[in-house]
Each structure stands twice: as C-alpha cells, then as structure tokens.
Specification:
The structure is a single chain. The chain is an alpha/beta fold. Helices cover 35% and strands 20% of the residues. Among the domains are: 54-71 and 135-187, OB fold (Dihydrolipoamide Acetyltransferase, E2P) (Beta Barrel); 209-361, P-loop containing nucleotide triphosphate hydrolases (Rossmann fold), CATH 3.40.50; 371-437, Probable gtpase engc, domain 3 (Ribonucleotide Reductase Protein R1, domain 1), CATH 1.10.40. The protein contains eleven helices and 15 strands. It has a six-stranded mixed sheet with strand order 10-9-8-11-13-12, sandwiched between helices. It has a five-stranded mixed barrel with strand order 1-2-3-5-4. Strand 9, helix 5 (258-271) and strand 10 (275-278) form a beta-alpha-beta unit.
C-alpha cells in the first residue's frame, strides 16, 4: 500500500529538479546573451570613439533627418581660391598692341571680356560644386540622444552645434541632392534658444544659438504696427539678442513720401539705440547695408507672415530660391515659409528664415522683467518710489511721470502696459512660461 505514494513523491521530486535545471539553463543563456550584448555595445563604443567626429551646424530639418554643415569657417587659410579677371595691363604681350591702333584695342577688349566671362563661369561652377559638395552631411539622430526626458519637443534643432559621425553611405535630401550620411552623436550646449510654445505640449525650438534678431516690418501690405514691433523687440531683449529693425517694402511707398513715412520710426527707435535699415527686395534698396549687418552673426529673420522675409533673404543671398508667396487681400500675410532653414552667407555667418510666429516663449529666463526690455525705462535717472514698481498704478512712478512729461513715447508705454497686463495672470505665471503674442 505505501509503495504507490512513495513513487508519486519521487516523481514530483524529479519534476521539480528538472524545472530547476531548466530555469538555471535559461538564466545562464540569458546572462550569456546579456554579456554578448554588453560586449557588442562596448565594441561599438570603441569603434565610434575611433572614428573622428566632425563639428558642424544644423542647417535644416525634415522628416527626422538633419542637414549639417561641416565646413570649416571661411578665413584666409580655408577660403577657396578663385581666379581673378585679368586687368587690361596684364593682357599677354602677344595680344597687347599700341592703344592708338583701333583694331588692336578692339582685340584686347575682346580678350579681356572673354577672360572675364571665363572667370564668371568658374565662379558659377564653384558655387554649384559647393552646393553639391560633401561638406553637408545628411544625418539621423543617434539613439542615445533620443533617450531620457526632454524639456523641448526635439533633441536636435536648427542652429545647434553638433558633432557628427560620418558614414560612407549616401542619401538624398529634400531637394534631390545626394549627400553623405551620418549620425549626430552630440549636441553642444546652446547659448540661446528661440522657441514656439504649444498648448499642453513641450516647447518647440525654432532656432538655437542666435546672437542677432533681424525684425522685418513692412511699410505697406501689411501696414506697419509699432505695437507688434515692440513685441518682437521685447523678444529680442529678453533673449539678449542684438536687434536690427528692417523697414521693408519701401518700393510700395512713393519715393517722395518715403522719408516722411520712415522719419518718425527712425527717430523713435534709432534714439533707443536700435540699428534701422530701410530695404526693398524689388529695388535692391538697402540690401548691401543689410549684408554688412549680417556678417559674422547667426541671425534670425523675424516678422509676421507677408512682410517679405523670404524675398529679402533671396536678395541678400542670391540663389537660395526660397518659396515666396503673395499677401491676401485682407492685408494679413499668408504663411509662405513652413520650415526653419539656416543658410550660410558668402560674407560669413548664418541666417535663418523662420515661419510666421504667433506665440513665442521667452525661455532664456524663468521670470522675464518686462520693464528691463524697454531701454528708455532703464535709462531714467530718477528712480521710482518703490523698488518693485510695476509702472501701472503705483504712486511715485518715474516711468509714468516721464510719459506725462513726453520723455517716453506714449505709444511705447502703451505697448508695455498691454504686455504687462497680459502677463499678470497668476495661473499663467505658475503653470506656463511667459509668452509674447505677436498678433
């Protein structure tokens, strides 16, 4: 009678022993696979460290890909040698005849013209080769940069200074060019950030590492709004960007009326220390002056849609062929630029063409002191009675006294008052970063 239970107990013990052996074997295999993965990751890391990473600047982003400019800075040692047109005195002796002989002079002029045409053809070819060169790498973001919690919507943004691991493969960009492929392995710390706020979502960086903001305002179509200009200036001041005011579409103003149309704006904002240039892409007015202001800066071109930002960039840097749209009849610009692009300038520096911005986060500081963004407030010699004066209703306010004395422009103060009241909401101050609405 007791034999059957003993056999049953022995069978159960054998089954438990078998299960334990299987578990140990599975654990051993899992550990071996883990060790192999760690060894492979270590080998990959060693391979990556053995490859020299290239320093570059992100020019544009599309469909999860990034175009990175890895060219060296343009200086005397790296500039491309370009043939110069031969002057008249340098014409070879066999073609140089006494000037008094009309036929000989004609031949010399023809030779000089041919040499100039050849030089121009070489210039054009160099430009084409530069556009199609391997100095632009088409990159994806490495997996390590995608991990972890981020304050911004994207790990890499236009304007970022990055380190790139170049591959030997090639890919095609959005414009059909064949470029080297690579991976962005590192993003350098950003010196500044211009971003767009999004409801209930992480902020989306428009462009990074700026040091200058070119604020484009149209004199006509749409009409110039000083309140909107003040908002852009606050954005630049709060982000510690040098501001340049560009009064565009001067060709739409009659020539005789142009000085009168710009006189008050230049007197007001020029007196505050802002650089002002009057431009027209159609008439090539002020374009050369703007080129000099852009030299050796990373500049964002800001402005509402329809003010002519893309047309102006095309005039500053011919050949970009950015998409330019018309202005709707109601006077409000239609968005013609949907993606942010960073473009390298021939004279040095970069310029960014940004979409029409409706809401821009002031991300450089958690608490933006709006009054500090108005230079005329800061320059007042007489301080307010209270250190925490908001310049709205407080007694003994030096700013309001200066407005009444016409030492501060009333329209500028009205812009400050409207923006200050907009940022008074305690709920918005606690839950969201401060925003400056462009509309």
């Amino acid at each position: 009678m007791p034999k059957r239970p003993l056999r049953r107990a022995a069978g159960q013990a054998d089954a438990k022993h078998t299960d334990a052996k299987q578990r140990r074997a599975a654990q051993t295999l899992a550990q071996a696979a883990k060790d192999q993965r760690n060894e492979q990751d270590s080998q990959d890391s060693q391979d990556e460290s053995a490859v020299a990473l290239l320093n570059g600047t992100v020019l544009r982003a599309f469909s999860g890909l990034y175009e990175v400019d890895v060219r060296a800075p343009l200086d005397a040692s790296t500039a491309v040698a370009r043939p110069e047109a031969t002057p008249f005195e340098a014409v070879p002796p066999e073609t140089k005849k006494p000037v008094r002989e009309k036929a000989a002079k004609t031949e010399v002029l023809k030779a000089a013209t041919a040499q100039a045409a050849t030089a121009q053809a070489v210039e054009t070819q160099i430009a084409i080769e530069a556009e199609q060169s391997s100095d632009i790498v088409l990159c994806q973001v490495s997996g390590r940069l995608k991990k972890g919690k981020r304050l911004m919507a994207q790990p890499v943004s236009v304007g970022d200074r990055v380190r790139v691991r170049s591959l030997e493969t090639s890919g095609m960009d959005a414009r059909g060019r064949t470029l080297r492929e690579g991976y962005i392995e590192e993003v350098r710390p950003r010196t500044s950030v211009l971003a767009r706020s999004r409801f209930n979502k992480a902020n989306q960086i428009t462009v990074a590492n700026l040091d200058q903001a070119v604020i484009v305002m149209s004199l006509r179509e749409p009409e110039l709004s000083t309140h909107r200009l003040d908002r852009f200036l606050v954005l630049a001041e709060s982000s510690e960007l040098r501001a340049v005011i560009c009064l565009n579409k001067a060709d739409l103003v009659p020539k005789r009326s142009l000085p009168k149309a710009t006189r008050d704006i230049i007197a007001l904002y020029g007196g505050l220390g802002y650089q002002i240039v009057t431009t027209s892409a159609e008439k090539d007015l002020g374009v050369e002056e703007l080129r000099e202001l852009l030299r050796d800066h990373i500049s964002a071109v800001l402005g509402s849609s329809g003010v002519g930002k893309s047309s102006l960039i095309n005039a500053v840097q011919p050949g970009l062929h950015l998409w330019v749209g018309d202005v709707m009849e109601i006077g409000k610009g239609r968005h013609t630029t949907t993606d942010v692009s960073l473009h390298r300038l021939d004279k040095g520096g970069y310029i960014a063409d940004t979409p029409g911005i409706k809401t821009v986060s002031l991300l450089e500081r958690e608490d933006v002191d709006l009054a500090q963004c108005f230079p005329e407030f800061v320059r007042l010699e007489t301080p307010c009675r209270f250190n925490n004066c908001k310049h709205l209703h407080e007694p003994g306010c030096a700013v309001r006294a200066a407005v009444e004395a016409k030492q501060i422009n009333a329209a500028r103060y009205e812009s400050y008052r409207r923006m200050s009241l907009e940022t008074q909401s305690e709920d918005q101050a606690k839950a969201e970063p401060q925003t400056a609405s462009i509309e």
